């Protein structure tokens, strides 16, 4: 296992329940049983707080940890675009993530493609809120 994945997943600063959330979504991966709940506090089309809880593998935990840190204090428009781009990453051959989202390349490497559904679960959950 990639040590970078473990390092990212071990950052659990946003792994908590957000009691004053404005939005919540829960999603389950039917393939493996991973579950994730995302709590957001939005204000003026911006994500003010992004908390989560998960019962999931290390890949999903790393993905949601990185996503929560990145999305906090970002505009909804920016995050909606990120979610669409991440989805393209797995569907289009040789798709390159824009430089501003380069941090996600730590997760989305060819050797982790077999864990695609685990990595995408937080993005799919967030997508439920954004749509």
Main sheet record: 3 strands, antiparallel
Q: Helical percent range?
A: 25-40%
Give me the Rg, rounded. Answer: 14 Å
**Average of per-residue pLDDT values:** 89
- What is the global morphology? globular
| Overall SS class | alpha+beta
Alpha carbon gap, first and last residue: 34 Å
Strand order of the largest sheet: 1-2-3
Which band does the percent of strand residues land in? 15-25%
SSE run: HEEEHHH
Describe the structure.
- The chain has helices at 3-9, 58-71, 76-91, 116-130; strands at residues 23-28, 35-43, 46-55.
- It is an alpha+beta fold.
- A hairpin with a 2-residue loop joins strand 2 (35-43) and strand 3 (46-55).
- The radius of gyration is 14 Å and the shape is globular.
- The protein has a 3-stranded antiparallel sheet.
- The N and C termini lie far apart (34 Å).
- The model has no long low-confidence stretch (mean pLDDT 89).
Q: Could you give a short description of this structure?
A:
This protein is 40% helix and 19% strand. With 131 residues, the protein is of the alpha+beta class. Strands 1-2-3 form a three-stranded antiparallel β-sheet.
Task: Please supply descriptive tags for the structure shown above.
globular; three-stranded antiparallel beta sheet; single chain; alpha+beta; 4 helices; about 130 residues; Sufe protein. Chain: A
Describe the protein's topology.
Elements (H helix, E strand, L loop, with lengths): L2 H7 L13 E6 L6 E9 L2 E10 L2 H14 L4 H16 L24 H15 L1
Antiparallel strand pairs: 1-2, 2-3
Helix pairs in contact: 1-2, 2-4, 3-4
């Amino acid at each position: 296992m990639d040590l970078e994945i473990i390092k990212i997943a071990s950052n659990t600063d946003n792994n908590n329940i957000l009691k004053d959330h404005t939005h919540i979504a829960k999603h389950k991966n039917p393939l493996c049983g991973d579950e994730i709940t995302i709590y957001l506090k939005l204000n003026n089309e911006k994500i003010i707080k992004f908390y989560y809880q998960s019962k999931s593998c290390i890949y999903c935990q790393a993905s949601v940890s990185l996503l929560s840190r990145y999305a906090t204090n970002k505009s909804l428009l920016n995050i909606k675009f990120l979610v669409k781009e991440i989805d393209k990453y797995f569907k289009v051959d040789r798709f390159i993530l824009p430089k501003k989202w380069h941090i996600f390349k730590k997760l989305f490497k060819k050797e982790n493609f077999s864990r695609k559904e685990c990595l995408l679960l937080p993005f799919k959950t967030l997508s439920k809120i954004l749509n």
